[in-house]
Design goal:
Elements (H helix, E strand, L loop, with lengths): L13 H7 L4 H6 L21 H9 L2 H15 L4 E11 L17 H4 L9 H14 L3 E6 L9 H12 L4 E5 L5 H10 L3 E3 L6 H4 L8 H14 L2 E3 L2 E3 L5 H13 L6 E6 L7 H9 L4 H14 L4 E4 L8 H9 L4 E3 L12 H11 L2 E2 L9 E5 L6 E5 L3
Parallel strand pairs: 1-2, 1-9, 1-10, 2-3, 3-4, 4-5, 6-7, 7-8, 8-9
Antiparallel strand pairs: 11-12
Helix pairs in contact: 3-11, 4-13, 6-7, 7-8, 8-10, 11-13, 13-14
The chain binds iron/sulfur cluster.
Length: 389
Amino acid sequence: MVGLLSIQEPNLDANNRDDLGVSTTSTLFASSSFATKPKPLSMNSSPVKHSREQIADLFDLPLMDLLLQAQTIHRQNFTANEVQISTLLSIKTGNCPEDCGYCSQSGHHRDTTKLQAEKRLEVDKVIAAAKRAKASGSSRFCMGAAWKHPSAKDMPYVVALIKEVKSLGLETCMTLGMLDAKQAIQLAEAGLDYYNHNLDTSRRYYEQIVSTRSYDERLETLTNVRDSGINVCSGNIVGMGEGRDDRIDWVHELLKMPKAPESIPVNLLVPIAGTPIGDKVLAEGELPVLEWIRTIAVARICCPSSYVRLSAGRESLSDAEQALAFMAGANSFFYGDKLLTTGNASQSNDNRLMRELGLTAQFAAPKAPKQLTVLDAMSGHESQVMLAK
Ligand code: SF4
């Protein structure tokens, strides 16, 4: 399903808002005194595709040269100092049949991680969390379920969630595991804006991470998502014991796609004791943060019109390290105190950091559902009509 993007509801009650010294966080984000004049988005319909050697050369650049190039490309394609903010909620936690070696939600590691599995979250609880996310300044609401793939009986539930969350004016994203072509079309017809399915790492290192599904199956789901018209969100997790060659190959894999993902999360592993990869990294040492920053910068340069997202791993980073990640061209992040099962940077800390860096939040622009309910005024009957793409 989701890599490390394990979530719980953000704690956005009135007391928390008082901590910020403002009535709502959206008031805070509306301040744009630091924002530079927006530049038009580059059409970038046929960006230069870097070869594997060119990607490797970018990784080898002196860090300041790499950051300068990444930030320059970022400003040619996006509004400077503007970030897209998402909130992530787990709608079905734990006991996943997949065996992803970094994930506490895998049923294969439950004896050692002791993660308590939970049933599907009721629709009204999801909607309540989405409303709080919107009030906090998020433009996109991401819902993750620890499934191998959604079952037939899960589809009406996820379709209902998409429609309800969109009706709040939020963009929607889901990460539910593998999707076949028919399921992708069903989600597209409900109006889903983004589907997340991470490649995690290189094809070569993937075998060390997951055995219950193949790299090709991951790519097949991404193809189904792309063909359905839903925006693709697909990223990686660095710091799982892979080498730089694997990080280079992962970027190269993105460029082999007919179109790069619109959203690219670059996760820094949060090693969880009791998971095979977490235990290995805790014993052997974590990846230096600057290598994660380099990976962000290379992704920005090679995929200039994609949103590059900071996801897992921010919690333990200093302000200066996070500032470098934005300098490297990251322009999206998860907001809230928790990701799927790992901690996240606290909400009040994110507000403070955004203020200090002069970052402002991008507003939501959800896609209209492709299917519209039409009421016949004469007969009173409702019918569904498809909208053109
Ligand atoms: S074990 Fe399941 S929930 Fe965890 S990352 Fe893998 S697919 Fe997602």
